[in-house]
């Protein structure tokens, strides 16, 4: 699905990614974890082609993504901070994205699921953070694509919406989608993810299942296992 | 690209500033015609306004739009769209809506005054053509500056400085060099120096078309010899075209290498 080889990225003097090698196979939910500034978002944005790596290659669905754009049709992306053009109405934004992608889409069900009907005619600048995130989720999940990338999907969501989001993620997994998630909410990660990818100082420090992580760190609690991860060096 | 162009364009058309700009030109057109009572004279006055104002508006609007639509751009970047089409679409959206305000804002009063029946029509058309070029040039330059600077204040500062340089400082330096080197033949130098500033180029082009080059003295005669002919006119338009194309290419080149 996604094949990353020797990825390097530097912002000015700040070396963010230094030689990331990663293979993500089809199907399943992968959690990309790591402390603040470890390069999670940079990694994800590199896969999306928003950040251009200094060195290394990325292949998505068997194709090198350098200077390509069509492959993004196969990726649904939920950005970290939901920022939208403020003078558009929710309805117009959904229509615009649909128009740009020219793909079958099921936004109606999602709008109902997150009860966004009352906001459809409102401008995006007037929405609250949580509602914006819901719009963000609708925009991400309304297309049927094999790869889904979620950058901090839980930000600002109320408990009810969070449960709905989790169900949505599970449903997509059952449909055979490959899902990449970053999050700082360990409870959420523990609940949804199959595999953990732990980034530290621009390198992959750990990759494996939740069980492997707990065995390696000898912690029964998932949150503690993650916190302990750096003290027990494991072979990647 | 055309979809992005469409969205940017309609986004701008709906914004208040496009109307303000349009209404300003509309009012300017009517007032000038009312005061001058003569199409040709109004064209001359208008030229002085256009030559300075159009680049300024193009620069400010370009930078402002680029920074304001950062979110929109990021949203688009995650979609299956080429970078070149995203930025070209946005650029043409801005430049297009500005040009439209200019052409309609000035066109309406002049047409109502009887432009089509007068012989000022060619001069007026030339004025609009150079106005369009200046809009295209300075919006593209502004986009280049905004792309290169993440910091809004810096971007704005450089953009305004660029306008100031080309509209005012360049002329000052030009004049100064003419005085310092007055012992030497300066015809070719002044011709070339004019070519390298789109504002000067547009001004000279219109002035000489308006047949008031006598005001310019000896240099004016040389300029007249050059710009007054079809050859000079075509060469100037080609220069303006190059001034447009070069920043657009640089814009695409820069956009392809930027991280978002």
Description:
The complex is a heterodimer of chains A (236) and B (260). In chain A, 33% of the residues lie in helices and 26% in strands. Chain A contains eight helices and ten strands. In chain A, helix 7 crosses helix 8. The longest helix of chain A is centred in the last third of the chain and has 16 residues, at 159-174. Chain A starts with a strand and ends in an 8-residue tail after the last helix. Chain B has helices at 2-13, 16-36, 39-68, 70-77, 83-112, 121-148, 152-180, 187-195, 198-209, 217-227, 230-257. Chain B has eleven helices and no strands. Chain B is mainly α. The two termini of chain B are 19 Å apart. Chain B has one domain (2-257). Chain A binds chain B through residues 11, 45, 48-52, 67, 69-73, 75, 77, 79, 83-88, 96-97, 99-101, and chain B through 3, 7, 11, 14-15, 69-72, 74-83, 256-260.
Count of alpha and pi helical runs of chain A? 8
Largest sheet, spatial ordering of strands of chain A: 6-7-8-3-9-10
- Tell the overall outline of chain B: globular
Helix-strand makeup class of chain B: mainly alpha
Mind telling me which CATH architecture of chain A this is?
3-Layer(aba) Sandwich
Number of strands of chain B: 0
Number of helical elements of chain B:
11
Which two protein chains have the largest interface (Cβ within 8 Å of the partner's Cβ), and how many residues from each?
A: A-B, 27 and 24 residues
Overall mean pLDDT of chain A stands at: 85
Low-pLDDT runs of chain A: none
Radius of gyration of chain B: 19 Å
- Which percent range describes the beta-strand content of chain B? under 5%
* Proportion of helical residues of chain B: over 70%
> Which H/E pattern describes the elements of chain A?
EEEHEEEHHHEHEHEEHH
| SSE pattern of chain B, N- to C-terminal | HHHHHHHHHHH
Structural class of chain A: alpha/beta
- As for the CATH topology of chain A, it is Rossmann fold
Biggest β-sheet strands, sense, barrel of chain A: 6 strands, mixed
């Amino acid at each position: 699905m996604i094949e990353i080889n020797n990825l390097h990225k530097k912002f000015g003097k700040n070396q963010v990614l230094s030689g990331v090698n990663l293979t993500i196979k089809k199907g399943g939910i992968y959690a990309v974890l790591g402390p603040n500034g470890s390069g999670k978002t940079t990694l994800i944005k590199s896969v999306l082609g928003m950040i251009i790596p200094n060195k290394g290659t990325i292949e998505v669905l068997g194709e090198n993504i350098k200077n390509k754009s069509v492959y993004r049709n196969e990726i649904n992306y939920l950005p970290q901070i939901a920022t939208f053009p403020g003078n558009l109405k929710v309805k117009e934004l959904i229509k615009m994205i649909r128009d740009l992608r020219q793909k079958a889409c099921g936004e109606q069900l999602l709008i109902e699921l997150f009860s966004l009907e009352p906001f459809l005619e409102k401008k995006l600048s007037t929405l609250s953070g949580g509602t914006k995130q819901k719009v963000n989720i609708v925009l991400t999940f309304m297309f049927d694509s094999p790869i889904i990338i979620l950058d901090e999907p839980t930000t600002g969501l109320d408990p009810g919406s969070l449960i709905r989001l989790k169900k949505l993620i599970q449903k997509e997994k059952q449909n055979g989608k490959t899902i990449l998630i970053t999050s700082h909410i360990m409870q959420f990660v523990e609940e949804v993810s199959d595999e953990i990818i732990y980034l530290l100082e621009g390198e992959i420090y750990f990759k494996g299942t939740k069980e492997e992580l707990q065995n390696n760190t000898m912690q029964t609690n998932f949150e503690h296992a993650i916190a302990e991860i750096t003290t027990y060096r494991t072979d990647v | 690209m055309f979809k992005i162009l469409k969205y940017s364009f309609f986004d701008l058309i709906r914004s208040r500033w496009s109307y303000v700009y349009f209404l300003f030109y509309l009012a300017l057109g009517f007032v000038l015609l009312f005061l001058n009572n003569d199409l040709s004279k109004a064209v001359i006055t208008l030229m002085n306004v256009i030559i300075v104002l159009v680049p300024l508006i193009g620069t400010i609007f370009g930078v402002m739009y680029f920074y304001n639509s950062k979110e929109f751009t990021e949203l688009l970047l995650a979609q299956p769209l080429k970078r070149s089409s995203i930025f070209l679409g946005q650029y043409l959206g801005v430049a297009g809506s500005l040009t439209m305000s200019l052409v309609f804002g000035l066109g309406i009063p002049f047409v109502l005054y009887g432009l089509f029946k007068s012989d000022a029509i060619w001069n007026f058309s030339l004025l609009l053509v150079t106005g369009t070029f200046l809009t295209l040039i300075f919006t593209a330059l502004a986009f280049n500056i905004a792309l290169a600077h993440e910091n809004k204040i810096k971007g704005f500062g450089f953009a305004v400085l660029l306008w100031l340089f080309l509209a005012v400082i360049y002329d000052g330096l030009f004049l100064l060099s003419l005085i310092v080197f007055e012992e030497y033949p300066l015809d070719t130098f002044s011709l070339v120096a004019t070519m390298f500033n789109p504002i000067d180029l547009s001004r000279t082009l219109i002035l000489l078309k308006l047949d008031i080059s006598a005001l310019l003295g000896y240099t004016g005669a040389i300029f007249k010899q050059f710009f007054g002919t079809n050859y000079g006119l075509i060469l100037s338009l080609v220069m303006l075209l190059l001034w447009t194309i070069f920043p657009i290419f640089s814009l695409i080149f820069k956009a392809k290498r930027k991280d978002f």
